[in-house]
Design goal:
The structure holds two protein chains of two kinds. Chain A is mostly helical. Chain A is built from five helices and no strands. Chain A has one domain. The chains are: A mainly alpha, B alpha+beta.
Chain lengths: ~110, ~500
């Protein structure tokens, strides 16, 4: 359950970072256009988070259930992120950044 | 060339999507609800014990089947699970009739009949229309695959607009973004669910292999794919019946897991065979491994062999579709993705109307445009209303009425056309979207409260106090969906008002 929460948080983080790598959405979220470095950093962080979420799913649920869970979380994470980002792009940044934390904390304790 | 290609793809997407859109919406709503079919089966029998004893009363169920269904082709006893902690006994007859009732796991007393979650599951795969319905659903599934592929082709900015949702833009823009958002971000799910859904009935949809390889002999094909012991009927009644429980215990040891499905083949004949199989919760692929026993002596007849590669692939695709594996987390994810699919279809059909807003306003009610608008409101707003009406019937019908399940289905079948006809009549002057959504919302929010009075043992205060989370979950999901529909009603009302002020005509459509 905790791994599930962590993996879900990671997909939110990943989609948030990937959307912030796009100039249009970066502008909405940060109020300015991103330079090349920032765009690359967001893109790499996003992909890494999505890959990490795959690793968490397969590690926690095995090679059979893990990938199915990951695929479903990817779809839902993306939809949740788009809805939140659309509602308030500035505050949604924090949701993206903090989403993996609850699962991580629960896993640690 | 490229232009004409993408234009023809857009044409195909528009019309393939529109023609089966309403049917797909029914299939999606049914399938989404069916994610929790077992939970709903129990919710619709309030007061069913949450815990089954380690030794359920299977003999009582067999006694009941013997008495009421003695001439059946086969009996099926479903052992209690965590999801449905009661027994079920079903009888399959030679004419295709299948009758199933639930029994208390401890006492074997027959529980209240209900159409249950099973109703939505059947609606999902054959619309309660038998073989013809199954082919219609298959056709809709194949058209959905066409719409998915053409949809990807025509969506030129698929990556650029991946995160875009201009929700406040109103009109066609918001509907199209809503369609794109749920369609693109849910694409892996939609592709998987449409493909595996069609694949489940592949032997019926694509019979060429069966015709050439097996001369059309389906029996031979199934025996080769999944061999099971078969005995010629002896045309005399069994001298006695071996007790089931020792077989179930033996199967538990042989198959190394808790059995779920017990089948008794031709129970009225001395050749009767008992099969004890597992449920499908441990692997993505269906698990049909079964231990067989002589129904008269109880002697073991061996086990079914593990499936071959092709059959295993089929079981994997079917299992992936039916999500019997992995527990509640997977069911919730499929449920959420199913809802997104419903939204995708509803938005898509609304795009069709919005795109043609001028023609729609100019055309009369008795036109193609009128028909599309009527079907939109009748299906998209009418079906959820009918579904929740059926749950109300479950709570209001007297406990001892004969054919309780049939009356629930009748309520569904009456509520839907009534809602649709009323909405269509109000389409030109009125706000049928708002009204139907608001009515659905009130019914959904009201139901958990009604339960407190008419089905106290299954209502929220009791289930919460008992820590019966699965049942509390059904009520809270109803409340959440009710709030969602209230929001939809509000949005439909403000959109209709905006449109009224924009145009002098009384056309009303939510945006």
């Amino acid at each position: 359950m905790n791994a599930w929460l962590f993996a879900a948080g990671l997909t939110l983080f990943g989609w948030a970072a990937l959307s912030h790598a796009m100039p249009r959405h970066h502008q909405e979220a940060f109020g300015r256009a991103p330079d090349g470095m920032r765009r690359r950093a967001h893109r790499i962080a996003g992909w890494l988070a999505l890959i990490a979420s795959f690793a968490v799913c397969t590690a926690a649920m095995g090679r059979e259930f893990g990938p199915v869970m990951w695929a479903a979380l990817l779809c839902i994470g993306a939809m949740v992120w788009v809805l939140c980002r659309n509602a308030d792009p500035r505050r949604a940044r924090w949701l993206g950044w903090l989403a993996p934390l609850p699962g991580l904390v629960l896993l640690a304790i | 060339m490229k232009n004409s290609f993408s234009q023809s793809m857009a044409w195909l997407h528009t019309w393939a999507g529109l023609i089966v859109g309403w049917l797909l919406f029914v299939i999606f709503v049914g399938g989404t609800i069916a994610c929790f079919d077992a939970e709903l089966d129990r919710w619709m029998r309030p007061g069913t014990a949450a815990q089954a004893p380690a030794r359920p009363a299977v003999e009582r169920v067999i006694d009941a089947l013997q008495k009421e269904q003695g001439d059946a082709h086969a009996w099926y006893v479903y052992l209690p699970t965590q999801r449905f902690p009661a027994l079920k006994g079903g009888a399959y007859h030679d004419d295709g009739r299948y009758e199933v009732h639930a029994y208390d796991a401890a006492t074997g007393a027959r529980l209240q009949d209900t159409a249950g979650g099973e109703f939505f599951f059947t609606l999902h795969y054959n619309l309660h229309a038998g073989t013809i319905g199954m082919y219609l659903v298959g056709l809709a599934g194949m058209m959905m695959l066409v719409a998915i592929v053409t949809g990807v082709v025509v969506h030129k900015r698929i990556f650029k607009d991946l995160f875009l949702f201009r929700f406040r833009a109103g009109g066609q823009r918001a509907w199209l973004d809503g369609h794109n958002l749920t369609g693109v971000l849910g694409l892996p799910f939609h592709l998987m669910i449409a493909y595996t859904g069609v694949a489940i009935f592949v032997a019926s949809y694509m019979p060429a292999g069966l015709r050439t390889g097996y001369g059309g002999d389906a029996e031979k094909f199934y025996q080769e794919v999944a061999p099971s012991p078969h005995r010629q009927e002896m045309h005399r009644p069994p001298p006695s019946r071996a007790p089931l429980w020792p077989m179930i215990e033996d199967a538990r040891r042989r198959l190394r897991a808790d059995p779920w499905l017990v089948s008794v083949e031709h129970p009225a004949d001395a050749s009767t065979i008992v099969g004890v199989g597992l449920d499908h919760s441990r692997h993505v692929a269906w698990n049909w491994r079964t231990a067989y026993y002589d129904g008269v002596t109880g002697a073991s007849l061996g086990e079914s062999p593990p499936p071959g590669a092709a059959y295993h692939t089929y079981n994997f695709l079917g299992g992936l579709h039916m999500v019997q594996f992995g527990g509640m987390a997977f069911r919730w994810l499929y449920f959420a993705l199913g809802l997104s699919g419903c939204a995708m279809l509803a938005c898509g059909m609304q795009v069709w109307v919005e795109k043609r807003a001028k023609q729609v306003a100019a055309a009369g009610a008795l036109s193609g445009y009128g028909l599309v608008r009527a079907l939109n409101v009748g299906v998209v707003a009418g079906l959820p209303f009918a579904a929740v009406s059926m749950l109300w019937a479950n709570r209001w019908l007297p406990a001892d009425v004969a054919g309780r399940g049939d009356w629930e289905i009748r309520t569904f079948c009456i509520a839907w056309p009534l809602a649709a006809i009323w909405a269509i009549a109000r389409l030109r002057r009125g706000k049928p979207w708002r009204d139907l959504f608001a009515a659905t919302s009130m019914l959904m929010i009201g139901l958990p409260f009604v339960s407190m009075f008419v089905a106290e043992r299954g209502a929220l205060p009791r289930t919460l106090a008992d820590g019966d989370w699965r049942m509390a979950m059904v009520d809270s999901t109803l409340l959440a969906l009710g709030i969602g529909f209230a929001w939809l009603a509000r949005r439909a009302a403000s959109a209709a008002a905006r449109k009224e002020s924009e145009t002098a005509s009384a056309a009303s459509e939510p945006a």
